[in-house]
Write a structure and sequence with these properties.
alpha+beta, two-stranded antiparallel sheet, 6 helices, 53% helix
Length: 189
Amino acid sequence: MTKAKRATIALGDIPLDVFQLSDGNYCMSQTQVAEVVGKDERNAREFLQSKRAKALPGIADTPAKNIEVDNTGQTRGQTRIVPWPIGATAVYWYFQAKRGNKIAEPLIIACLCDSLLRRADEAFGVVRTMEEYNQELVGLRRSLSTLSDEMAIDDNARTIAGDAWRDNQRLRDKIYELGGNPDDTDTTD
């Protein structure tokens, strides 16, 4: 039996273990896929078993059995993993981001930006090192963090304004109910 090969890649400043299977396909471990977005392995397993995931092409083919990993020269990591194809990994992270997972959101955006940047570089014949790509993603993550903080402030302001508007409407309705006119601005008696 051929063991899967392990390599560590970086997505910006996030290290990720990837594995190459004997058929040449790549995968990640189910545990890492979940942990990198702050979830436990059970959450990822339940996602794969959901109707939503099973409806997606290629997701239903995700094997649930452990595979052995070649740990020759490795000082960390397990010797067996539950493999997740790269596509299943991306869909799970997207699903988490869509559900508001603040760890998954910048991870998905980094994947998208990395893909676009590499394709643009290829189109224009630009050659960058892996370190240069990762520095781009680290900068993007910092910008996203700042933007996320600002958006949270905007969201809070919208919530406060919405609450004030609803309170205003309730008071206006109560004034009508009591026979008054809330638009009557005459305050003299």
